[in-house]
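For practice. Any example?
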Amino acid sequence: MSASAAAAAPQPVTAPIKAGKRKKLILIGGVLLLVLLLAGAGTAYWLKSRAAAHAVEDAGDEEVTAQLNAAAKPNPAHPPTFLPLDIFVVNLADRDADRYAQIGLTLEVDNAAFAEQMKTYMPAIRNAILMILAHKTSHELLERSGKEQLAAEILRETVRPLGITTAAAPKAEAHKVATPPADGSLTEVPSKKAKSAAQGPHNPVRHVHFSNFIIQ
């Protein structure tokens, strides 16, 4: 082969191919780095939002607790009003024997005006209480827990005839540890207004006091 033919023969192009591979690897690395940065930023934002939400929730719970404690504290300037009811005599729901209960109740309400209002609804209130008592057994009422449950049901049912519906006391739930979603979205945290709405309206009947409790 002559020198001119050797010079004209095409030479292998290696440098441009290596440069292209290098650019491709740099591009892929840049994309991966960007994805990791975005994921880290999303996770950090989610954690900060959750921490802020829990701080607001805890502050709201403390405020609600303080309000409940202030409401429960006796105020000598505004003493509660007690509304005694006529004694209830009712057959109980025992199946093995005929048992009956003789129970006296006194309702502690917010003020005298509401006590007078309750008197106008007394037939419906007494009917609601009798319906509760008629479904109880002597075994339930002999236990302290049964008496406390009875008082809670009477507390809720005595205001229904007046158009006041209160929610039952929610059971305490264990706190769950949340994990950030894969898509980085945030879980909505219930507001204090939503919690107050779930608890229902204020019950003007504060307590149910037993003045007489006989089971035979």
Observations:
- DSSP finds seven helices and four strands in the chain.
- The radius of gyration is 36 Å.
- The longest strand covers residues 205-215.
